[in-house]
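REVIEWER CHECKLIST
Item 1: Sequence provided? yes
Item 2: Single chain? yes
Item 3: Sequence as submitted:
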Amino acid sequence: MVSLSTENLEIGYSEKVIVKDLNLRIPPGEITTIIGPNGCGKSTILKTLARIHEAKAGVVYLDGKMIHKMPTKEIAKKMAILPQSPEAPTGLTVYELISYGRSPHQSGFGRLADKDRQVIEWALGVTGLLPLSHQAVDTLSGGQRQRAWIAMAIAQETDLLLLDEPTTYLDMAHQLEVLKLLELLNKEQNRTIVMVIHDLNHAARFAHHMVALNGGRVIKEGAAVEIMTSEVLKDVFHIDAEVVQDPRTQKPVCLSYDLLDNPRLSKEAASF
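Item 4: Structure as written out by the authors:
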């Protein structure tokens, strides 16, 4: 089972440091969700974990090896990443998109072997996309399109999946559709999944492990019951949250919340 961790990781752009001294260990075989306010570094951390973004300092370890010293193809056989709002070339079919996931396993001219076709058919089946395999990706609904990208990622046959806001722009039903698919992959295939999610209730519902970020640092990490508390949400989002137990899932949910008193906002409102 693939392991992923960081040691004293420092991340930023140019001279600006966004994340400093990040020490994370992603629990293998579990679903980890990362939450935090806009601009706190969630997506940048995910890109750095996948070696898409270069760290300023510190180390990312993949299976005990320093990821920046590993060959790209070796990484791609262990880890797949689905970035936020990916786009496919116009006219590219679902089958063709998923076939890109087989690239790390190909050699020579990159022609599909029987094994590649078997995996593509499996990915189409598990994501419910077999009837749409020859349809252009850009003609699909939001939920179907997201499932196609997930199918491409799982066709890489990696034990580790990183996903940046996989439910963005999807309606409620399609959000659950995508998250339940990822939950199924975790349960049936023991895939380790790391997701950045904005919806706190979804993050808590589907996670074994949660990481709460703010200001470029980890505020708290642990099980959903440890993270989804009024105190932690206050520290992370500066809100006054009412957290209760969901009778359907027994997971904590944020029932209602309000902004904490903001002296600057109150002062500006009074000046009108």
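Item 5: Key structural point noted by reviewer: The mean pLDDT is 91.
Item 6: Recommendation: ____
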